[in-house]
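Protocol step 4 of 5: obtain the predicted structure for the target chain.
Materials: sequence only (see below). No template structures provided, no constraints applied. The aim of this step is simply to have a reference model before the mutagenesis design in step 5. Sequence pasted as it appears in the construct record:
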Amino acid sequence: MRRTLDERLQTFRDSGLLPHTPTRFQRFLGQLEMVGYVISPDATDAERYSGAPLGGPLVRQPLSAALVGIDHFRVGDGLGASLGGLCRHLLFVFHQGMPNYDLQLIQTHPDGLETLRRFMEDAQTEQTPRGRRLSRAAGWIVPDSKDYREQFLRPGGWIDRAVRFDYDPPPSTDPSLRPEFNSLVRFLVYCHDHYPEHPGALEWQRWPQTLLTIGTTRWRNIQ
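Step 4 output (structure tokens):
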């Protein structure tokens, strides 16, 4: 049976991180604003992948898309991504810091973090045919892929910390990285607090201007 959004987010409400669930309309407007920050030069930053045999963006991007599947192309809030797609994304897409947003998405799935742990361990130990295939493919596009996976798997690592709801704070070194988009919970709180609950709160004549203003937030704020 498919779980409702409220059911999926219950773990964050129980932990006190999410006081309210935003409406579908609030999430729509938040995603419209966030998309400019997701589709950016940072997403194809070759420097992050330096040292990987196939780390260049022209090769890496189509290969990553093939390995991750359709979920690789989701640029909204990510709540429509499958658990398997999220696990593959974390394996094949290099993250320099704790991937708060993706880990929280995984936490909305039943047994999500333990599923991710088993998936990463399979690639790390290479004791199964699937694990050997995953490890080999990750080594093509992720620099120091074994060390990267160890960030998830080591005691007190990213998975253990997510279990405790202990996430990295938003980075402060790059002003273009919005803290509201650093984690799923921060994003949902921002949507609830920042946008009207229903379309009726906006006059229909203002819709084109409102949507354009929200959708171009990143580009208008670039210094």
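Step 4 remarks: The radius of gyration is 18 Å. The chain has a mean pLDDT of 84.
Proceed to step 5.
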